[in-house]
Amino acid sequence: MMVIGGGDLYGARRVVHVERESSWVYLDMLTPSWQVGGPFDYPVDGAGRGWLDADYDVLSSVEPTKGVKFDWYEGPGPLGNGSISCCLYQTEIQGPTGIATLVNTHLFRGEFDVGDLGEAFNLNVDLLVDDGGILYINGVEVDRYQMPEGVITTDTFATRHGYEGGYVTRVGLDAGVLREGVNTIAYEVHQLARVSEDVMFDLELYSVVPEPGVLGGMLVGVMIGFWRRWG
Predict the structure, then answer these.
(1) Which helix or strand (DSSP H or E) is residue 228 part of?
(2) Contact, 132 vs 53, CB < 8 A?
(3) Residue of 128, 127, 101 whose CA lies nearest to 197
């Protein structure tokens, strides 16, 4: 796994697939078990498709066991509630109260285009997440951040407090899940405990691509080729 930070490095450049402060469709109605009426499970649509499905219809979204209709909304990131020391949110979502967490799990969906898979390897993500979460691309989990192993439910807690100093870089994601054309991206954010004061979400998804003819870029290219062949 190569660790590559922001900006250019050794003749490599970023190819950004999802920019920071992009618009997201989100659900902030998943009542946990400790609130009246809970717990609410992950939603399905009128055709029975799960929320990670590329063709998921948010307009027919319901809770699968109780039949409660879910309303999804849309807004630019960062999306949040409460106070995070590093950042201000652009879109306010329903969240913690500081007394009892009204929503333990928030869901976010979006799409992005990949025009050339040749520039869609060495996949990385910069996360702004409070407290923990899971990233999916085309319905496949590609990163689990501050979350326990095993089966996750809407009542599952994150394992640590979210980092409030800014974005955290996660590297070496599986680029094999990408396809040319439209790709679906989804994220679920979880709180640390029943009593929480804030929630925040934003990300940037990008590849690091070597520049032709640059020695450092050649080195990165060799490493990527090795990873493709033997990784």
Answers:
(1) helix 215-230
(2) no
(3) 101
Peptide bond into 39 cis (omega under 30): yes
Query: How far, in Å, CA of 49 to CA of 72, rounded?
Result: 16
Token representation of residue 220: 């990165």
CATH of domain 12-230: 2.60.120.260
User: Which residue in 178, 186, 142 sits closest to 49, CA to CA?
Assistant: 186
End-to-end CA distance of the chain: 9
Rounded Cα gap, residues 56 and 48, in angstroms: 9
State how far the Cα of 221 lies from the Cα of 91, in Å rounded to an integer. 39
Name the pairing type of β-strands 91-92 and 79-81: parallel
Q: What is the pLDDT of residues 49-75, one digit of tens each?
A: 999 999 999 999 999 999 999 999 999
β partners of residue 69: 62
The residues spanned by each domain of the chain are: 12-230
Q: Is residue 223 helix, strand or coil?
A: helix
Tell me: the pLDDT tens digits for 3-47? 333 344 457 888 999 999 999 999 999 989 988 889 999 999 999
CB 5 within 8 A of CB 211: no
Q: For residue 128, what are its two tokens?
A: 């702004």
Residue pair 75/156 in contact (Cβ under 8 Å)? The answer is no
Residue 114 CA to residue 218 CA, distance in Å, equals: 23
Opening angle at CA 159, ends 158 and 162, nearest 5: 70
pTM: 0.86
